[in-house]
Specification:
The protein is an alpha/beta fold. Helix content is 45%, strand content 20%. The protein has 3 helices and 4 strands. It has a 4-stranded parallel sheet with strand order 3-2-1-4, sandwiched between helices. The longest helix has 15 residues.
Length: 92
């Protein structure tokens, strides 16, 4: 399961729900490395057998997204689900 999220709110809740449902591998990304690792650590603390892949980056960057997806497929063999839950952007 590939999830781009804001590592809080709905994105973290979705990642945690997939882990709770028995997902064996998650790949999550965020632009904020600290929040990303906090979410990863929480999931692993509750589900020790799960594989959680992470990458810090911006999903607005097409090259980052393609690299991230390619890395996930290379690491776990396939991609079954993709969820995009970006944080709200403020406009000045």
């Amino acid at each position: 399961m590939l999830l781009r999220h804001d590592c809080k709110g709905i994105g973290a809740a979705i990642a945690k729900a997939f882990a709770e449902a028995g997902c064996r591998a998650l790949a999550i990304t965020d632009i904020d490395d600290k929040k990303l690792l906090t979410t990863k650590d929480y999931i692993i603390s509750k589900h020790e057998a799960i594989t959680v892949l992470t990458a810090t980056g911006d999903i607005a960057d097409e090259k980052f997204v393609q690299s991230f997806i390619n890395g996930v497929v290379q690491e776990v063999g396939r991609l079954d689900f993709a969820v995009c839950s970006p944080r709200k952007q403020s406009h000045s």
